[in-house]
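This week, work through this protein record:
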Amino acid sequence: MPTSQDPVETTDGPDLTESIEEWSRLSSRSFVPLTCTTTSAASFRGGMLTRAAGKVSIAHLRFSPHVVERGPIVAGDAGTGRYKVGVQLDGRATVEQDGNRAHLGAGDMVLYDTSAPYRLEFPDTSRVLVLMFDHGALDLPPNAVSQLRAHRLGPEQPVHRMVGSFLSSLAENLQELTGMTGQRMGNTALDLLTTSLNRELDGQALVSSDEKERLRARVHDYIEAHLADPDLNPAMIAQAHYLSVRRLHQVFHDEGTTVSAWIRTRRLERCRRALEDPVSARMPVARLAARWGFTDGAHFSRIFRTAYGVTPSQVRSQASSG
């Protein structure tokens, strides 16, 4: 039986329940400890089909009206440190977290965090896609993402509409997400969610009086666009944004990191994904690393192992055997 810390277990067909108590146990086992209640216990029905797709656990749910609550987090709770993104496919929902409240209809998306209490209310028979992944799997700083908890991402925004359309298609084809196909689709889903969330953060920054947030968004975009340049460094970034290097370092200090550490982490993540991709299976590790700005192959291997606990060759081997 999987724990809340494990990826969602792959099943041949959906798990079906005919009581709110069974649904509560299934939800807690598949996600994190949760409490589910309903005012129509006698007629409650629920079904859940799950897949593990790389770093993402994906679940397609159908259920009768009910309420889901994530209570106060207690010491030792293994379900913390993860984000969940819900895509409302049919029906309505209200999502509450940190004093924020999002009202969802079909086509809407929402992000919430398992590290804090939340409440979900489904007044209709609904169909929902839920993606769950570790904080570190999302290519955005946690303090920025926290601004989007229980914040509706609607299809009237073109980027959200395109991302939501892709995620909705996963719900209709969940059985196909196995092996390397599932892993690559999971990575694609994470990339698209990062794009959608970054677009929302950029939109908020444009209407915000906080210049620091706008600057942070521009700097992150610049770094992402120049990761492959081995000469990328704080001085280059600062010059491109008409900043002093000291001011640039302050931006990243507020995020709890440094410019160089952010660049290194983003490059390592790009290399890790390339190592897991069968398209790059024949490319020497040193050459792959050089594509993302690491000019010293031995240095790359050392910091990769420090970051992930395994060597680049082991990651490639694990991916090919999966």
